[in-house]
Amino acid sequence: MNERIRVLSVIDGLGFGGDETRLLSMSQTLDQTRFAHSVLTLNPSAYGAAGEFQARRQQYLNAGVEVNDLSEAEPEHAWNAGGLPSRLYAKLGILRRARRLARVVRKWNVQLIDAHLESAGVVSVLAGRLSRTPVAITLYGGYSGSDVQWPLPTRVALRLADTVITDSQIRANQMRALLQKQAVKVAVIPNGIPQPRSHRSAEEMRRMFGLPDSRRVRVIGQVGRLIEYKGHEVLLHTARKVIQQEPDTAFLVVGYTRNPAYKDYLRRLSANLGIADRVVITEYQADIADVWNAIDVHAHASLFDSLPISIAEGMSLAKPAAVTAVGGIPEIVLHGRTGLIVSPGDPDALADALLSLVRQPDLASRLGRCARERYEELYCPEIMAKALESQFASMLDPNKSRSFL
Predict the structure, then answer these.
(1) Among the listed residues 94, 253, 215, 189, the one whose alpha carbon sits nearest the alpha carbon of residue 387
(2) Which residues are CB-contacts of 386 (< 8 A; sequence separation ≥ 6)?
């Protein structure tokens, strides 16, 4: 029997973001007869204050996924070997971390580095060059207003990586334009997410979140990180319009934030809009399936996105959805067939779409059913895993030449 391919996935830390969910799905679904896979975090302390890292890490461990930390696998010496000024020594942190990662790669006989997101991507490509190990980077694009921008270190990482993986065609086209002659190395592998399954009832979850008990009340929910570009302000203005016209509705917004002031701001805005008694804004550390059990209609008000995990999750559960036309969302949601798509930043349009789903149960049921069928055809985890397996195997083809620093 051939020896399994040793793949090390490298990520800055494990939070409740989309890429961490994608990585968990990949970790659970890769063919274990062909691949020996583990996860290494570079900076878990960034997630420690709110317990987010520990909660997410426990989900990985519960799924049987090996998770290591660079500081444990390769501790950093506490001394400044070169006698460099402290400010310069701090600026060399990426290089020091890359050297430590390269040593881990050699010690563990890693054959392929699977890097995730910008920070880990920069460190990983340098470690790959030092250890002569191919590197794939999974990226979705940096946000700056309405544009996609990558800082200089990320652009360097994109050029040095052996393969760049992203989840949508629109983001891949932007990367190819940046890479020009190297455009061929960009691969589109959409997110494949398992259907969330909960053992808690919808009634139990509504009581836990403080939502109305009555099944007459339709709960509209957005699931995703609490960050400005996810469009929560737009959603709250939308909520006021919907609640005014359909009093038997309530809104649930669930997601983590690394900026508690933003969550507080959203709660104040909800109170100022006079809808605080019908809007819940919170986090949830346990199974995301529990959250979905409380939701009747999915809303996704993003101003910027690639291919959100929550949309695939909602589709897998046949949740009718109203979403915005940003990033790769129109690639996954087909307007009028598997959901309703509106322009971003338009509370009136989003409210009209949500009201259609609340008032027309037949339409909502049809869209949800078709969304589930599309998920099964394109976005289940087995499809993503097979594409990644093929991509990883091709990167180790001995006939492919590589250049090194």
Answers:
(1) 189
(2) none
How distant, in Å, are the alpha carbons of 40, 69, 101, 302, 380 from that of 72? 10, 5, 11, 38, 34
Which CATH superfamily is 202-378 part of? Glycogen Phosphorylase B; (3.40.50.2000)
Do domains 5-193+381-395 and 202-378 share one topology? The answer is: yes
Lowest mean pLDDT among 63-77, 224-238, 280-294: 63-77
What pTM was computed for the model? 0.89
Name the residue ranges covered by the structural domains of the chain. Answer: 5-193+381-395, 202-378
pLDDT digits (tens, 9 = 90+) for 305-354: 999 999 999 999 999 999 999 999 999 999 999 999 999 999 999 999 99
Tokens representing 188 are 């589109």
CATH superfamily of 5-193+381-395: Glycogen Phosphorylase B; (3.40.50.2000)
Name the token pair of 317. Answer: 């559960």
Dist CA 122 CA 133 (whole Å): 14
Per-residue tokens: 78: 């506490």
What kind and span of H or E run contains 249?
A: strand 249-254
Amino acid at the residue 327: G
**141 vs 186: CA distance, rounded Å:** 13
Query: What is the C-alpha separation between 223 and 133, in angstroms, rounded?
Result: 37
